[in-house]
Every structure is written in structure tokens, then in C-alpha cells.
Amino acid sequence: MESDSEARFHRPTTTTGARVVHRRGVGERQKTAQRLLFAAAEASYDGELDINWDAPIEPGKYWLPPHLVSVYGTRLWDSLTEQQKTELGKHELVNILTLGVYAECALSMLMFRDIAEADGLADDSSRFGLAAINEDTRNATMFGRLINKADLPPYKRPRAVGLLSRLVMFAPTGPAGRATMLLVEEAMHRLVVELAVDPDIQPHVRQLMKIHALAGDRHIEFARAEVQRTIAERNAIANAIHSIAAAAVAASIYPLLINPEAYSAVGINPVRGLLAAFLSDQYATQARAVTNSFVHFGSRVGLFGGVSGEMAKAVLRLGRVWPPQQQREMIGAR
Description:
This protein is mainly alpha-helical. The chain has helices at residues 4-8, 23-27, 29-42, 75-79, 82-117, 124-149, 159-167, 175-196, 203-233, 236-252, 260-265, 270-278, 281-301, 309-318, 325-331. Pfam families: AurF.
């Protein structure tokens, strides 16, 4: 029979059997929100005033780094002129910004729902949600201004995105819904941080990304805590369903960033462009880069573990976002 001390010091596990590595964070939800609120107040920027939108575009500067363009490193890429490469990067950035506006709006709607349905309508968690919505609104406004500065119309959203935008308020409030919010934040933040420090990028793009990056760290920290909290609150069967749903979203996010209309705009046959993009080594590299942080985090906290773990990982492999063996060993993923 176990002694009291032995029982007391058993390592805690989630309902999926994963090791609990977040007990303190979940228990201090309000303190975390309060700390992030103070940080938001100290680092507040106005996208209308802190970016010189009247300044001219700088000739010779990229809109998107060449290695982030979808067909980079392919024979098709080598056949393009320098002007075509720069122009294709601009079109693909505008497509990303267009999706970014939709994503920021969707995140805001979900956060408004969380606040409206929360028990603590006037607590620090709700106040941080409102502050995050304010920052997401600013980000969407900046994205729109940058699209205008690129002198291109916004790209039409894919039909799947249009359907999801209509159904966003019906998204589950459990781990899958929270994980989707985290995934969007992580994917955008990865691009934002890289562009914010690139000296070869248009100054308007770089300054926008610097402003966006400051809020991104706070949003990711809060979203991670919410994912952990909802995993701990649900049973193994519910978490299994959420695990597979989250994996499906992670596997599908990078393809949304590849738009055949961008190829047509610079004189590339769209079918040829899509084939070059999807069949290249670049595709898997960038698909993993967009989702890498999210997948590593999900592996650590048990989102991709438990009874549905292998099925979730199979979905991630299908989307070419599950990390190679050596990366899994580095993070201790199972």
C-alpha cells in the first residue's frame, strides 16, 4: 500500500496520459492575464501614426524575402526574371495579408464569444481578451493599408475560407478551437518576426511587422495557456476528437498561402506554378516552418498524444508538417 508521501508525489498526468507541464500556468490564469495587460499598456503603437504611409516605395527592396516565395529553388524560379521574382513576392505577400485580415477578424469574433460567455465578465482575463481584440483590429487595419500601398486589390478568399468564416462562431470551445487560435497566432508570428528584421524588405512592411511582433508574443502566451487549460478540463475521448481536428487544421494552413492567381499575375501558367510549388522540397520546408512551433508545443502538452495520437500524427505527416525524427528527439516528442 502506498504511503501518503508516495501518493502525494506521483507525477500528475492529463486525461490523455501525458505529463502535466503546465499546472502553475493554468492555476494562475488571471495573474497571467494581468501581467500581459500591463505589458500591452507599456508597448502600445498606432498603425496609422507609427508607419509613414506617405513615404514612397523604395526601388530594389523586396516585399517578401525570395526564400519565402512558394516556387523558390525550383526550375520555374530560376527561369524568372528579377522583376518577376520581386513581383511574385509582392503578390504572395498581398495574398497573405488578405488572409491575415480574415484571420484577425475570425480571432476577434471567437474572443468576443469567449468574453460574452465567460463567468468572469469583468475579470483580467476578459480585459486582456478585449485588449487583444483591439490589437487584432489594429493589425487588420495595417494589413489593409499595406495592401493599398502595394497598389494591388485584396485577393479573393478561397471558398473554404469563406465557408469557415461563416461557421467560425460554431467552432468548438475546447482544445481544437483554442489550438486553431494558437496556430493562427504562431503561423503569423513566425513570418512577422522574420520580416521585421530583414533589411532588404520594403520599410513599410518591416515597420508593420515590428509593431505586430510586439503583440504577438503576448497573444501566443495567453493562447498556449488556454490550450493547456482546455486539455486538462476534458476527458480522453473528447481530447482525442479535438486532437485530430487540430492536426487537420495544422496540415491545411500552408496550402492556403499558395494562390494560383499570384502566378497568373506575373505571367506564369497557374497549373505550372502550383505543380512547382507543391512538388518542391521548399513546400515541406515552409509547411513545417509555419507550423513548427505549434506542433512542438502540442506534442509537449499532450495535444497530439493519448488514444488518438497516432492518427493525429498521420494527419500531420500527410500535410508534411510532422517534424523529422531528429527534431522530434530534440523536443522529446512521443
